[in-house]
Design a protein that fits this description.
Blueprint lengths: L2 E5 L2 E3 L5 E8 L8 E6 L6 E6 L5 E3 L8 E6 L4 E6 L8 E8 L11 E4 L3 E5 L2
Parallel strand pairs: 2-11
Antiparallel strand pairs: 1-3, 3-8, 4-5, 4-9, 5-6, 7-8, 9-10, 9-11
Amino acid sequence: QVQLVESGGGLVRPGGSLTLSCEASGFQSRYYAIGWFRQAPRKDSEAVLCISNSDGITYYADSVKGRFTITRDNAKNTVYLQMSTLEPEDKAVYYCAVATNYYCSHYASDFRSWGQGTQVTVSS
């Protein structure tokens, strides 16, 4: 059974950092693209960034360039979203998802399984 479990969310002050984890089970995440999406209050879901099976990183949200990055630990079957210099606008529920294919996409329909989400709140 394919499953993704996010963790690491929480409350952080502006300018702070958080690392979100996306632990996969039921499949080897190294063979697929893994994306991070977020949904802020009263806004549509947006693709944030994605890592392909060859560890190529694609940024979909311009606002996170230079602040967020994505990494893998294949031994732990886990993908991480490392967030720094957080801003109040980064407040959202963050979801990881596994793509149907090995390449990245910003379309939610190209992802076949999703985690339950983890809340990130940026506030002083």
